[in-house]
Structure formats: structure tokens, C-alpha cells
Design the sequence.
């Protein structure tokens, strides 16, 4: 079992739908990252969380430290949100443990 | 004005050659990383430097040698390239101040193809 599990692995939805991607981890962490990788390959950091909730535009990220779980939500999804979303946690010093990613496709 | 820039973006070379990928960040960050993204899209850390000092050195062949001339640069040199080295290599930086909690900023990636 991986230390960081993401679900679902693949998600296809219609434009406008509310999207939720989940990340569960089994190690103690100092921070959790959500990243986005577009089909072109570039990786962009969306959020870094150590507690609570953060919002940026249509994206919302939450983390529950006790349950070792984080979610990434996208409201009013759009085809340009199509990408791979990656959860990564900071374990011991400087080490990042990566999830396998969730491939999201938003159809117009 | 790119925050983390890598060169070259594409590199096609023959087996046995030696090549380098350069990375520069203009964010003033103290920590830089090299990641390898394999065909299954997993990102694996290779090296990390904090203020020019090596702090993470994962199990990679010693044909890979990182060099950090200053904290804004982390270059990756690969000797005797093999087919299995074909991948996309990502440079990243963060401001960790020793806490391991800085947000990551990635370069655009360098796609290496070994023929």
C-alpha cells in the first residue's frame, strides 16, 4: 500500500460539474501539496496546506490532519481544468511522497 | 520572467554520451530539487540542495552528478547515458528555511531521449 493514495485515478465529468479529488496518507506530515500537471507537461503548485482550508478562485483544498485526508474541489469545472492533479506530502525533512495522480477530463 | 527555468527543454542524444541540464531560479529560494518523471508519470526525487549543500541523494546511479555553484543554480550532469535515462527531468525550488514546508515551484521540464 502506497503511503499516499489518491482517488479516483481517472475522472471524466461534464463542464460545470463540481469535482472532488481525494488524497489519503499514512505518514506524519509537515505539509501537503496539491499540484497540477497539464497535458503539455508543466507542473504548477496549486496549494500547500498544513491545516484547514484554502481557496483560490474556483479551487478549494481542505485537509483533516487527524483523519490524514485532504480533498481538492473544483467548482464550475471547465475544459481548461483538464489535467493531472497530484497530491504530495512532506514526510521527514525535505522528503516528498507523491500520490499517483488523478487524471481529470472535463468535457464541454 | 520565468521563476524556475531549465535548459534545454528537449534533448535527444545517443547512448554513451555525457549531457547536462541546467536549472536556475530567481525566487531567492534556499532549496532546489531534481525530479525524474518516468513513463508512468511518477515523480521521483533524485537530489535536493539547501544553500548549496546536498541534503537528499536518493538511490540514483553515480552517473548522475548534481552541481550547485550557488543557491540559485542546480545543474544535473549525466555521464554515459543509457536508454533507461529517457524521461522528463523537473527542477524545482522552495523556500524551506530548514523546515521542509515551503511551496514548490517547478521548471517546465527537460525531456531527455536517449537513442
Sequence:
Amino acid at each position: 500500500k502506497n503511503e499516499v493514495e489518491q482517488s479516483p485515478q481517472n475522472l471524466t465529468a461534464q463542464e460545470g460539474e463540481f469535482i472532488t479529488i481525494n488524497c489519503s496518507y499514512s505518514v506524519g506530515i509537515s505539509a501537503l501539496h496539491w499540484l497540477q500537471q497539464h497535458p503539455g507537461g508543466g507542473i504548477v503548485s496549486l496549494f500547500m496546506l498544513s491545516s484547514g482550508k484554502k481557496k483560490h478562485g474556483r479551487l478549494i483544498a481542505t485537509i483533516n490532519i487527524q483523519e490524514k485526508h485532504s480533498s481538492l474541489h473544483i467548482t464550475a469545472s471547465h475544459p481548461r481544468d483538464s489535467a493531472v492533479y497530484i497530491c504530495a506530502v512532506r514526510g521527514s525533512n525535505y522528503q516528498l511522497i507523491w500520490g499517483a495522480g488523478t487524471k481529470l477530463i472535463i468535457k464541454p | 520572467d520565468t521563476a524556475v527555468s531549465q535548459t534545454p527543454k528537449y534533448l535527444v542524444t545517443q547512448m554513451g554520451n555525457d549531457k547536462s541540464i541546467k536549472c536556475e531560479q530567481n525566487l531567492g529560494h534556499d532549496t532546489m530539487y531534481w525530479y525524474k518523471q518516468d513513463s508512468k508519470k511518477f515523480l521521483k526525487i533524485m537530489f535536493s540542495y539547501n544553500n548549496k549543500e546536498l541534503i537528499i541523494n536518493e538511490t540514483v546511479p553515480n552517473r548522475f552528478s548534481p552541481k550547485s555553484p550557488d543557491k540559485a543554480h542546480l545543474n544535473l550532469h549525466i555521464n554515459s547515458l543509457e536508454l533507461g535515462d529517457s524521461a522528463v527531468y523537473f527542477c524545482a525550488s522552495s523556500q524551506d528555511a530548514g523546515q521542509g514546508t515551503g511551496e514548490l515551484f517547478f521548471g517546465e521540464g527537460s525531456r531527455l531521449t536517449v537513442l
Q: What stands out?
A: The interface with chain B takes residues 30-31, 33, 35, 37, 41-45, 48, 50, 84, 86, 88, 90, 92-96, 98, 100-101 of chain A (CB under 8 Å). The radius of gyration of chain A is 13 Å. Chain A is about 0% helix and 60% strand.
